[in-house]
Amino acid sequence: MLVLTRKVGERILIGDDIVITVLDSRGDGVRIGIDAPRGVKIQREEVIKAVTEANVEAS
């Protein structure tokens, strides 16, 4: 895992076509913006876990 310290407005580049920008920092949260091609899936881990757990309970 790569751990970085960034300030608001600074960016992280992943490959040639993904850019992550730090938009805001408040207390214990950070807002980020992600620019990526439409074909790249961007999902929050907690949402995927919740859906997976709901599917397991339903079956």
Question: Ranges with pLDDT <50 over ≥5 residues?
Answer: none
Percent in strands = 25-35%
| Run of helices and strands | EEEH
Q: Mind telling me the C-alpha Rg? A: 15 Å
Which sheet architecture does the biggest sheet show? 3 strands, antiparallel
Distance between the termini: 35 Å
The dominant shape is extended
Number of helices: 1
Number of domains: 1
Q: What's the average pLDDT?
A: 95
Q: How are the strands ordered across the major sheet?
A: 1-2-3
Short description:
The chain is α+β, with helices and mostly antiparallel strands and 59 residues long. It is 24% helix and 34% strand. The protein has one helix at 45-58, and strands at residues 11-14, 18-26, 29-35.
